[in-house]
Amino acid sequence: LQLRVSKSYLILGVVCAVEFAVFGTGSVLAAALNSDGSIPHPIRMAVFFGIFWGAWFALSLYIIAASCREKLTVTSQTITQEGVFRDRTTEVSGITSVKWRAWPVGGSIVIRYPHSQIKIHFDNFLENEREHLIRTLRGLIPEDCQDNWDVFVSSRHTAPTHPPKTRSAAILCMALFIVS
Q1: CA-CA distance, 52 to 58, in Å (whole number)?
Q2: pLDDT band at residue 59, thresholds of 50, 70 and 90?
Q3: How far apart are CA 135 and CA 153, in angstroms?
């Protein structure tokens, strides 16, 4: 089983990167030029705006990188999580404990092994992939290592089945861009 994060993260990252680049450039130029003389320290404000919008732009680039790089591979022998900055692999036989969690939205699992852990957030994947992943992990890992399964299952039946889509966030970003 090999899964990648939902493509909606790529769309969100690109839309926000463009938006933050435009906001940042506009803010820096407006502050630096100070055409009406209303800003007492225009260069300081330009630097502040550059750092502020630059940080948001960098976060957008991280989201783009994560959508392209992050991958989860589950086989009968190993679980491998590839991230932007590091990769983690554990053999299924080396797993010491597993905690099923209802939080964040969509649920998550923490897989512990002797020297580290792997956290998997189920909401990062499409719904059909998520369900297949949950069934695969539940069947692959010995039950005596698993904790909190009942709470995890009950939370999935009481929580909304369709969390807010990241497309909604992208639309919000675009609306803010158009309004300003």
Answers
A1: 10
A2: very high
A3: 12
Contacts of 16 (CB under 8 A, 6+ apart): 56, 59, 60, 63, 170, 173
CA distance 57 to 52: 9
Q: Give the CA distances from residue 177 to residues 8, 15, 73, 168, in Å, rounded to whole numbers and listed in that order.
A: 19, 10, 37, 14
The number of beta carbons lying within 10 Å of the beta carbon of residue 117 is 15
**Rounded CA separation 60/62 (Å):** 5
Instruction: Centre a 10 Å sphere on the Cβ of residue 90 and count the other Cβ atoms it contains.
Output: 20
**Mean pLDDT computed over 32-55:** 92
Give bridge partners of residue 118 from the DSSP assignment: 111
Q: Roughly how many angstroms between the first and final C-alpha of the chain, as a whole number?
A: 44
**pTM exceeding 0.90:** no
pLDDT at 156 over 60: yes
Taking every pair of C-alpha atoms in the chain, what is the biggest distance, in angstroms? 70
Instruction: Using pLDDT thresholds of 50, 70 and 90, give the confidence band for residue 177.
Output: low
CA distance 79 to 31: 50
Pair of tokens at residue 9: 């993260």
- Per residue in 32-65, is it b (16+ CB within 10 Å) or e — as a string? bebeeeebeebeebbeebbeebeebbeebeebbe
